[in-house]
Automatic annotation (TrEMBL):
Gene name in the database record: tsaC
One Gene Ontology CC term in the entry: cytoplasm
Listed GO MF terms: ATP binding; double-stranded RNA binding; L-threonylcarbamoyladenylate synthase; tRNA binding
Keyword Nucleus: no
Protein name in UniProt: L-threonylcarbamoyladenylate synthase
Pfam families for this protein: Sua5_yciO_yrdC
Amino acid sequence: MQEEIRRACEVLQKGGVILYPTDTIWGIGCDATNEDAVRRVYEIKRRNDSKSMLVLLDNPVKLQNYVAEVPEIAWDLIELADKPLTIIYDGARNLAPNLIAPDGSVGIRITTELFSAALCKAFRKPVVSTSANLSGEVAPSNFGEIPEEIRGAVDYIVEYRQNETGKGEPSGIIKLSNDGTISIIRK
């Protein structure tokens, strides 16, 4: 696994795009601070860049680097979540501009899954994580379901966990607004 993390980090540092396992489903990823890399992910997915993508971090402490003000409730939600949870925060910062939604928000998930957490820790920056499918199509629930078109468009495919046949599921999504509003987007 360490060699896979080293190779993936090398590609990410050069502005490349990877296909990798996460705590939910397989994701297309890149350096979340690199505008050109983020643009490539939108192109690969054939997705309008007004549809935001989320980023992964390995440690909640790092949130403060990418969100102007982390609502107090976020810390409890992260700690108490019993399945992967993406939280949409207002006041995104220090990320590629084309990754931030028009309202200034960004979705961030703290991953504890072995590979994606180690990747984020080794890379030392947030990593984009978006489902490995073309926009509008069903998200693949394991590596074997990823379309060849996606596989052929990325710069590196992580070998770790490719043989798993289980059904991964997308994360829950909650939007926390600075005015105290909590909205459940996806359970």
